Amino acid sequence: xxKSRLFSLFICLLLVFxxxxxxxxxFSIGSQMPFLQDGFSTNVYYVDAAITLLSLVxxxxxxxxxxxxxxxxxxxxxSKKRIGASILCxxxxxxxxxxxxxxxxxxxxxxxxxxxxYEGFTTMWNxxxxxxxFWVCLTTVVIGPIFEEVLMRGLVYSVAEREFGGYTPAIMSxxxxxxxxxxxxxxxxxxxxxxxxxxxxxxxxxxxYPILIHMLINLYSTLPPGLDTDFTSGFLDFLSLVxxxxxxxxLIKLLRTEEANEQDxxxxxx
Length: 270
What we know:
The chain has helices at 3-17, 19-30, 34-42, 44-66, 80-108, 115-123, 126-131, 133-163, 168-181, 184-204, 208-220, 230-242, 244-268. It is mainly alpha-helical. The longest helix has 31 residues, at 133-163.
């Protein structure tokens, strides 16, 4: 591996694994601001929303600087067909995540693998029930996905793409996305989701599609209190499982279509 590639890999790792340190710095700053102090001391999701919003602004500025004057790939001209495909993919990826969790629960945990991690995973949402749905939704469904996509499919992907071609930036940003979550059980399915979101961005060149998919995935697991029932959860689980095969078909078709378009464009070059 060349020095430039090693340096790009180092920058990607630095961006991902210094983010918790940045959170600590922003928390220290925010906790000293009078108009934020009450929320910082009483509501963990209020804290998350404030810190994530500040981090989003910082990473957007950094990404913009990295692009060196080129516009951010976030066109509002969205294709209706691709919006529909994004909704389908969000369900399919939720289904794949559900199968991974079932595998962990019924295969790995009985074997003594990831036992403590799975127990921690099942209790990690307890704070959400006490924080109030508005702040949970704002952080988990709105600000969080935008921030994570800007960091992973935006900045990290762009840095990786400078030195690595093909599918490497999508795979690299996806694996780092999984590792960034920190929780061992979460790492498994978020890495898979991250790779797919990287492929979607690679082929559409519009960050709004991965953001939309990410928002919907998080929404399915963070439903409003009136909709968060056993029936609704069961119905979404059923839909997500049914959507796995169509999602794989759409992704394969997207990859093949874009590759065919690229080959045609190369043939037309003088």
